[in-house]
Amino acid sequence: MSDKSQGKQDKQGKHEVFVISVAAEITGMHAQTLRTYDRMGLVSPQRTRGGGRRYSRADIEALQEIQRLSHEEGVNLAGIKTIIEQQNRITDLEQENAALRHRMAEMQEQLRRAEQGGAGQRSRGEIVHVPRSTAVVMWEPRRKRNR
Predict the structure, then answer these.
(1) Which parts form a coiled-coil structure per UniProt (predicted)?
(2) pLDDT per residue as tens digits for the range 10-63
(3) Which of 41, 59, 110, 120 is within CB 3.0–4.6 Å of 55 for a Cys-Cys bond?
(4) CA atoms of 33 and 14, how far apart (whole Å)
């Protein structure tokens, strides 16, 4: 088997990439169909410097899902594009939600530590309102000088 049919590994050896003819063979689609899907934005493979398409395993799976939606579910390409966009949006929102939950947990932990640390200790300063001003400043009493 040649390198083209087996796929190539990237510089780190983490994932395989396939030329368009191999991707077409794997998915059972015509290469022109893959080009059309690329132009439509349904699947956007990586490009070489020369402009050649390189399909990852994730791209192959996306192509197979497109084929399933089209043939088994009867969804047209515009509907498939909308489905893919919504799935991507859901993924983005789930990641954002997870990041926000993580940040909230960090803030709650900081608040808990601040509340526990403040109990039984004298505050270093107080927040006071300065009349005729909208500014809020931190006031600390002067420390006694040792002479």
Answers:
(1) 83-117
(2) 455 567 899 999 999 999 999 999 999 999 999 999 999 999 999 999 999 999
(3) 59
(4) 27
45, 27 Cβ separation under 8 angstroms = no
Packing angle of the helix pair 31-40, 57-71 (nearest 10 deg): 90
Say what the pLDDT of residue 9 is.
52
How far is it, in rounded angstroms, from Cα 114 to Cα 123? 11
Higher per-residue pLDDT: 94 or 15: 94
SS3 helix, strand, coil % of the chain, rounded to 5?
A: 55, 15, 35
pTM: 0.62
Is 55 strand, coil or helix? Answer: strand
Residues in Cβ contact with 19 at an 8 Å cutoff, skipping those fewer than 6 apart: 4, 52, 53, 54, 55
